[in-house]
Design a protein that fits this description.
Layout (H helix, E strand, L loop, with lengths): L2 E7 L14 E2 L2 E2 H11 L4 E6 L3 H7 L6 E4 L8 H10 L7 E6 L7 H9 L4 E6 L2 E2 L3 E4 L3 H6 L5 H7 L5 E5 L12 H11 L13 E3 L2 E3 L1 H13 L2 H7 L4 H15 L4 E4 L7 E4 L1 H30 L3
Parallel strand pairs: 1-4, 1-6, 4-5, 7-10
Antiparallel strand pairs: 2-3, 6-9, 7-8, 7-9, 11-12, 13-14
Helix pairs in contact: 8-9, 9-10
Amino acid sequence: MSTTALILAAGEPRQMDHFQPMLKLSGKSVIRRQIESFRAAGVEDILIVTGYHAGMLERHLSGETVRFVKNEDYASTDMMASVQCGVRALGPSCERVLITPGDVPYLHPETIEKLLRSPKPVAIPSYRGSAGHPAMVRRAFFSALLGYQGERGLRGALAQWKKDTEFVPTDENGMLIDINTEQDYRREQREQTPPVSPVLSAALTIQVREACIDERSIRLLECIELEQSLQRGAARAELSYSNAWLTLNRMEEALGCRLVERKLGGATGGGSSLTEDGRAWVERYRRLEQRLGEDLLRIQTDEFDKTL
């Protein structure tokens, strides 16, 4: 059965300075959110009624496979005129239309699918007794939509057909939320923006004369002690043998002490191990590293956790 989603995006904003369909929430515009929801529910044909900022909106959606029809009288007519403009542009094979204003950012695919399963001529989502968007209308009522001249626009037209309408219950209230004011937009921005949770980190470096004792050099000492070999320790620390020699010699020269004891080969074989000074510097570095981490956590709590 052929279905068209009809998005009404012609009206000029009355209570805010921004054009609602193009407002962004979490980096995505309201109208792109709507298109994605309809697509996720299996609705491929999407018709957008434009008017105010029509050219800008079409450029914004230039990568989308959608159709446009313009309500030339958008400045002097209400939303019902846009509905009728859209209905007149429906294809002859369209059997039902899903109608939504362009300022409703949270259309749920599951709710849309429920509406499409309704056997009634009209189906409207309902959350705790409140009707929302989109409204599904079958072809049998298209002519009545085109001919409606009463009050309250689309709501007034739909209110005539209560006995032919199924109010489809849903447990999500997104279809009730629209963005009509700056306050609405700021509220939804807060809701959609994840909390900022900065994490402080720092790498400890101890500068001694021309040498830097850092994580890489301490890791080398630990690997030498673990492997009892400079060559195997360098490989474990992912350093070339020459770089390991250079790093070790620079530290020993700057500190004025031996960090590694080299054992010559013999009956028991050669090897390398840390001296007492070498082990003391490894322990000192790890102890300072732990204290630095504790201090950073306190600073993080004071600067961010108490204020954000």
